[in-house]
Amino acid sequence: MAGVRLESRERAVGFTFQVLGELKVFGGQGTVPVTAGRQQVILAALLLESGRLQNRDHLIRLLWAEDPPETARTQVQICVSRMRKTLAAAGVEATIETRPPGYVLQIDDAALDLNVFRRTVGEAAALGGEGRTAEAAALLRVAVGLWCGPCLNGIPSDELARIAEHIDEERLAATESFIELELALGRHHQLTAEIARLVGENPLRERFRGQLMLALYRSGRQAEALESFRQGRTLLMDELGLQPGEDLRRLEQAVLTEDPSLRLVPTAGTHLRGTEPMPDASATDPGPDAATDEDVRTPARAAVPRQLPVDTADFVGHQQLVAEVEGVLTDTSRVRAPGIVVVTGRSGIGKSTFAARVAHRLAESHFPDGQLYCQLRGGRADPVDPREILGRFLRALGLPGPAIPDSLEERGEIYRSMLAARRILVVLDDAVGEEQIFPLLPGGHSCGVLVTTRARLTALPGAHRVTLDILDEQGSLELIGNVVGADRVGGEPEAARALAAAVGGLPLALRIIAARLAARPHWPLASMVQRLADERRRLDELTHGEMTVRASLALTYDGLAERDRTLLRLLSLTKGSTFPSWIGGALLDVPDAYPYPSDLMESLVDVQMLDVAGVDATGELRYGFHDIIRLFARDRLAVESDETERRAATRRVGGAWLALVGEAQRRVLGTRYIDGPAVRWNPPADHVGTVLGRPLEWLDTELENLSLTVESLAQGGEDGYAWELAVNLAPFYEARGYLDHWARTHRKALTAVRRSGNQLGQAALLASLGSLHLNRRNLPEARRSLTTAVGLFEELGHTKGLGLCRRDLGLLERLAGHDTAAMDLFERAERDFGDDDPWARASVLVQRAVILLRRGDVSRVEAELDEALEIWRDLGYLGGQARVLQRAGQMHLYRGQPADARKALVEGLSMVRDDGDVIGEGYILHDLGRVHVRLGELTEAASYFARSLSVREDILDQAGAASVRVDLADLSLLGDDTAKAGGLLTDALEVFGRLGMAEEEGRAAGLLARMTADGAAEGR
């Protein structure tokens, strides 16, 4: 529509950061790439709170919710560090300050499109308040035009997505205000098509629909205005079971009667909130068919059943849900069907208590004709037959026993007839499914139905569903305090919080421990914390009188199919906080039983014994246990599953992880490490292809599960699976900088293989630990591990293992400055690998090229690097190609060709960043700093050194950081900053000496001696 249509823009001029749509950053050369995933989430969070401190723990929660990895703080630091580099490289005027306990993003207010939007809306409001309607409308048109899609569209964070939804509401509110102003200006003809489009996009938003009705009416299209109302009413009834709001109903009445108040009346001022004036419909005649209180009043002779169970005096939490349920059950706009609410939740969550509280609150005020209640025993093997329930209800309603018919159908007919004109609340507690509930539903709209169930009931027409979740810490403490006394909770606040955490906020468990403490006032709360600390006894402690968590969960468990009971038990073998969907197939040994692996899990989700934890970065559904249910499943595992079943399931899961890690290795490295005899279990091929489409992201996602699985296999006597999984994870631990995981898994697995006498496992683990020590530049430990591994591999005649050890021993000798010994070891390693392992041969070629470069044999260096690059290109190994380019950069620098060196290093930097190789990034940034020193570009050199230092400190690479400090010291000396240089060199020498890095120590010591001598000479 001319002059009025609200168009989204490609990009408004004048701002740098876009959140009104997909997250984007604009630099001088166009869009600045922001790596998808964690960097996007952190940048978005900082932008939404620009100028204000963002706590690092809050950022961790945004990224991993309540399940952060051990390396969460380090990963956040790395993301922030990379973001700083990205923004600086693009010339973006923004500063991310480290300010304990987090970060602050400092930007100009006008650099963020959201700030511009809000400022413009505020200015429009001020103009509207002054009666400057046309100017206000023009500003709102500009404000709404800033949007190019939903706020933070596609952001991979549930919490940020929720925040973005609230910001999207601001857009809709501004649009409504704009239309209101345009209507006040008499532009209803031009507006009609645009409002119709908005109604189509937001069909349940009544203000848009009211504005459309008004525009149509003022355009002489009364019938279409009324049709729009009818469409909206039908949609609301179908979607929500609700009638339109009072304002929309009044407007419909005004359109019907052609109320004069709907005519356009010019005003001195038009405000941005509120609706067009509506006629007073309060005195409207309801008509002859309108129901009155008298119509639904109970006959005097009818029985009034009062069957509700006792209300719980210590009910806490869920106040918002109580109000929501009460609103549905007391909605007077229903004209056809009863209000039905289904309350779902796991065993022990408090569904029955919740239903009793709601029912008692509404009993006298809204359902004075009675309350029917039945416990349906949905969690047991013998749920109550609806025919039997109807018999009970009919007797309670006053029908004599002999008059009650035998058939379900006839009982249902009489039941519905007796309830038709009465206001009765029917509470159906612990339903098993829809087929049990359908016969018990009243037919008229005057009644209400409240159902509790463990199952996900989705086939009840018009039902409103709410799900009870665990209590938060405050609710848990309140419940405990209500039972034991607030003074005891206040006297031991830490113990009270520990109790709440020990049972994960499960209301039944909280009531039990509170009841036990109340019965023993001499017990300190801390004594119960100690009792619950032992997971093996926790379920035994959660018993008091007839209340027992184990019995509550057993009701649901006993009602499961045999396969689902077995799966629940075996899932307790998992150690991670969440697990992928395919793991169910491995535990049950059914790789191809279902087209979708998640199908195995859904039966347990349906009865709330398993939670859907979300979707990970690879698109894989993830599941998890509540802690108490996990303990229950372990309890059942110990009783019902024998050692043979448990060990077979454990081996299948270990074999499945091995198969997936092996495939990830093939996709990323183009090779495998050292394999043993552990049997692989292959998840469905199509599924593997999907989850491993991005293998490094998959490994990041499964880091916790993979590491915990190694430890569990080692502790459970499956040392053959433990060592294989550990050593095959080592290349990924190295590439991602997960050195602590590398060390921990290998120590656990090494203990296991030594205990069992597994010689191949010991050799492989010691060889891998040698690589770890080399990464940490702990040369003495590396030598011990590798030398021992060589002896074991020689006894086994394992040539590949020997080659890997000799290659790493060659690297050790090179780092120690023993080039001749290193070259001998590299040549022996090459012979060990032969032609069967081109990947390993390429790694030797690169190491050998370093020594050849030091010797000045540039032609051989180039030949070695060319051959290695060709091998790794053929294998598709990006990390190896980047490693070759780094060495090529060093070769060009040696030749006096800094421009060529920079070109090779920049290409390599792009590769390591694409590959997520933070260690490689640290190395290449360091070399780029050296290139810029050679070019005489000292400011750029300092920047690259600083960025390399930041990366290496983030991943705790002490040796690498010390090496960078030496170059920074050299650079400081060029600027005559001897104090700074001295400090840097002293720090570096301490690290080199501790790690036994003779060559680096010699260079740093020489630089310090030169600086000292120069200072002494100047003093003379």
Q: Can you lay out the helices and strands and say which pair or pack?
A:
Elements: E1 17-18, E2 24-27, E3 30-32, H1 38-48, E4 54-55, H2 56-64, H3 72-89, E5 95-99, E6 102-106, H4 113-129, H5 133-145, H6 158-184, H7 188-201, H8 206-218, H9 222-240, H10 246-256, H11 319-329, E7 339-344, H12 351-366, E8 371-375, H13 386-396, H14 408-419, E9 425-431, H15 434-437, E10 448-453, E11 464-467, H16 473-484, H17 486-491, H18 493-502, H19 507-519, H20 525-533, H21 538-541, E12 543-544, E13 547-548, H22 549-558, H23 562-571, E14 579-580, H24 583-588, H25 599-606, E15 611-615, E16 621-624, H26 627-640, H27 643-668, H28 685-691, H29 695-701, H30 703-715, H31 719-736, H32 739-756, H33 759-775, H34 779-796, H35 799-815, H36 819-833, H37 838-854, H38 858-875, H39 878-894, H40 898-915, H41 918-934, H42 938-954, H43 958-974, H44 978-995, H45 998-1019
Parallel strand pairs: 7-10, 7-11, 8-9, 9-10
Antiparallel strand pairs: 1-2, 2-3, 4-6, 5-6, 12-13, 14-16, 15-16
What features would you describe in this structure?
The strands form five sheets. Strands 8-9-10-7-11 form a five-stranded parallel beta sheet, with helices on both faces. Strands 1-2-3 form a three-stranded antiparallel beta sheet, with no helix packed on it. Among the domains are: 1-184, Orthogonal Bundle (Arc Repressor Mutant, subunit A); 186-236 and 243-265, Alpha Horseshoe (Serine Threonine Protein Phosphatase 5, Tetratricopeptide repeat); 319-467, P-loop containing nucleotide triphosphate hydrolases (Rossmann fold, 3-Layer(aba) Sandwich), CATH 3.40.50; 473-551. Helix 27 (643-668) packs across helix 30 (703-715), helix 33 (759-775) packs parallel to helix 35 (799-815) and helix 36 runs antiparallel to helix 37 (838-854). It is an alpha/beta fold and 1020 residues long. It starts with 16 loop residues before the first strand and ends with a helix. The model is unreliable at 1-5, 7-13 and 267-301 (pLDDT under 50). The protein has 45 helices and 16 strands.
